[in-house]
Specification:
The chain has 88 residues and is mainly α. It contains two helices and no strands. The chain is 65% helix and 0% strand.
């Protein structure tokens, strides 16, 4: 009986298959970690979206004529440094 027929996988084929499986496992774990982070941040994002929507609704409901005549808070007139004159 001759045993020249090859049966099974070579070491190289097994190592390549294991490398592919390891890459898939790393990708899956990264996906789970990212999903956990997104799940943790979801309530804060939802709250921010609700507050932003409320602010937009207030802006849409305000009388736009009143906005043109109201002074801007925290606005100051520009000052010149001492010793300099304006217009020269």
């Amino acid at each position: 009986m001759k045993r020249n027929q090859r049966s099974g996988f070579t070491l190289l084929e097994t190592m390549i298959a294991l490398a592919i499986l390891a890459g898939a496992l790393v990708g899956t774990l990264a996906g789970f970690i990212d999903a956990g982070v997104q799940l943790k941040e979801a309530p804060m994002r939802n709250t921010k979206a609700i507050l932003l929507d409320a602010k937009v609704q207030r802006l849409l409901l305000t009388n736009k004529a009143e906005l043109t005549f109201s002074p801007v808070p925290h606005a100051r007139a520009p000052r010149c440094p001492t010793g300099l004159t304006v217009g020269r």
